[in-house]
Model the fold of this input.
Amino acid sequence: MFNKILKGIFNKNNNSKPDWEGYKEKYGKNNIESIYKDILMAQQIKREGNFEGANLIYIRLNNKYGKNPAILKSWGKTLICLLEYEDAINKFEEACEMYKEFKIKDECLQCDIHINHIRSRYDNPEFFKKWVSDISGKAIHAKDVKLNK
Done:
């Protein structure tokens, strides 16, 4: 399943010729599928409001598989829910650099957008609060979002 999603990402970027084979070689097909299943579980737990539980899954994934852009990008969204904004920025920046290695521009762009939303949270707090609510799967109500920890 994850391979199909990645191929879809790569197909959107035909003009940049993403390196699907290099990605598979670096992360391994079996690892990619296992990682994706755990990311789905973490996302579900996050949407239920168990942000600490989701964070523990990402810590375990990172410890088991090492740095992986899919883990880092998804983990960043959980860190937003935990009000760990600087840590989330770091995860998105790291994921973006790794996606660039394989010329996956769309995923890197998404990371950059998340970073921009976090950094500009004081400029448009209502937009930011709604965005965090959306990131959380509505587990956090916009009115409850804090701009600082």
Q: What stands out?
A: The chain has one domain: 20-144.
